[in-house]
């Protein structure tokens, strides 16, 4: 028996090595510590091409779900440079109007005004999705907000949500059978005037909208759910003066020192990072014999878990924006957030997105008040789904 085993085992190992196939596939290896996450996302000895390949492989589902052709799904280094450069140009676009934030603030104001409930009740997450989608289209693509209709936006944002979820459980053929992508693109074709300039607008819409709407929704939700409503004043003051100085200001309110709008959004990104896990295919050590035998199918950085560690201060699972007050910097320095990734593929909008989300959230809060509407608070703060019980309603007076 032993001699049979001694003969067969090396044969199996040799076959596995010859076929370059892992023998014992562990489906996913998850990293929950900051140092491991930094190594996974920014390995020191890996070329940019390998880094892009490691990201592109787990993202192929986005090709089937949305027809993406961007750097998120490709190992091409030239495409990476062209795409990230173009994204930076689009993000800087609002700056052409002298004041960098004027474009975002005025788009948010118009969108909220358009979509606040004419009927008695509006679903909270649907409303935030439509407002955020409109602001993304208007600021990145110069879409005229008057051409956007609520029902069409509801359709498109629902399709994005549904296809995103489906892409995790359905294969390419099943995704192709569903005609919703073609129908959704018919709307987007009408909204984006310069299609020559933007041959595949979803390449930019998706990373921007899909993350931003959830940051806006969670920020607005905490403003209504937490701290005896004192955060509403912070949002309204910032909405009236959406400058970077006001974004960072810790002002005194009726109940003492208030968190800045920046601290509120950073706390939202810490507790509810929109990208909870960042996946990489293990291309790095693909040639070693050990890797061939035991490689995991995917390695992933658990951003949500690392953000809950006590390096961010006491009681890390509680929503406590004052932990970002300058007086609370721990002796070893403030721990960094990984909501925008880390290293060479870190998000190009890491500086833009927190302020933009804050501006949209502030305009939502201010206009809900001005229009005499109220927010009905649900039991839980949701993510892509899970917003049961949340609504915006017309006030009774
Ligand atoms: C709160 C909002 C956002 C969050 C949380 C976020 C998150 C992320 C994360 C985690 C990555 C790294 C992905 C990886 O390493 O695999 C990333 C990359 C990227 N994001 Fe964002 N993002 C946000 C908003 C935006 C916006 C508004 C844009 C604008 C178009 C954008 C464009 C990009 C691009 C182009 C990359 C790829 C960078 C590269 O390959 O070098 N993101 N984002």
From TrEMBL:
Per UniProt, the keywords (alphabetical) are:
Signal
InterPro entries per UniProt: Cyt_P450_sf
* Signal peptide per UniProt: 1-19
Q: Which GO terms describe its molecular function?
A: heme binding; iron ion binding; monooxygenase activity; oxidoreductase activity, acting on paired donors, with incorporation or reduction of molecular oxygen
Q: Does the keyword Signal apply?
A: yes
Tell me the superkingdom of the source: Eukaryota
Name the chain's protein. Cytochrome P450
Q: Which organism is it from?
A: Boletus reticuloceps
């Amino acid at each position: 028996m032993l001699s049979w085993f001694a003969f067969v085992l090396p044969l199996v190992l040799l076959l596995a090595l010859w076929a370059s196939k892992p023998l014992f596939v562990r489906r996913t290896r998850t990293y929950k510590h900051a140092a491991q996450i930094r190594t996974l996302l920014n390995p020191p000895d890996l070329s940019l091409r390998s880094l892009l390949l490691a990201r592109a492989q787990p993202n192929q589902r986005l090709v089937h779900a949305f027809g993406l052709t961007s750097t998120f799904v490709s190992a091409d280094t030239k495409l990476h440079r062209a795409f990230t450069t173009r994204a930076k140009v689009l993000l800087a676009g609002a700056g052409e109007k002298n004041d960098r934030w004027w474009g975002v603030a005025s788009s948010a104001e118009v969108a909220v005004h358009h979509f606040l409930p004419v009927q008695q009740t509006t679903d909270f997450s649907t409303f935030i999705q439509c407002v955020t989608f409109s602001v993304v289209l208007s600021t990145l693509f110069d879409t005229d907000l008057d051409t956007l209709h609520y029902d069409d936006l509801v359709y498109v944002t629902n399709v994005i949500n549904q296809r995103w979820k489906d892409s995790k459980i359905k294969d390419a053929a099943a995704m192709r059978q569903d005609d919703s992508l073609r129908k959704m693109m018919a709307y987007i074709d009408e909204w984006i005037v310069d299609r020559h300039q933007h041959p595949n607008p979803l390449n930019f819409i998706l990373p921007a909208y899909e993350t931003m709407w959830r940051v806006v929704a969670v920020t607005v939700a905490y403003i209504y759910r937490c701290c005896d409503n004192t955060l509403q004043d912070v949002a309204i003051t910032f909405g009236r003066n959406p400058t970077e100085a006001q974004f960072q200001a810790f002002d005194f309110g009726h109940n003492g020192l208030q968190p800045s709008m920046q601290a509120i959004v950073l706390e939202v990104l810490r507790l509810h990072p929109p990208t909870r896990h960042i996946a990489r295919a293990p291309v790095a050590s693909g040639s070693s014999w050990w890797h061939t035998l035991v490689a995991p199918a995917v390695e992933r950085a658990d951003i949500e878990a690392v953000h809950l560690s006590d390096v961010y201060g006491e009681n890390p699972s509680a929503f406590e924006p004052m932990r970002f007050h300058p007086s609370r910097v721990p002796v070893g320095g403030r721990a960094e957030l990984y909501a925008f990734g880390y290293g060479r593929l870190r998000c190009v909008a890491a500086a833009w997105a927190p302020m933009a989300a804050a501006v949209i959230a502030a305009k939502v809060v201010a206009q809900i008040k001005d229009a005499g509407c109220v927010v009905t608070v649900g039991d839980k703060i949701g993510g892509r789904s899970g917003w049961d019980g949340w609504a915006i309603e017309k006030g009774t007076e």
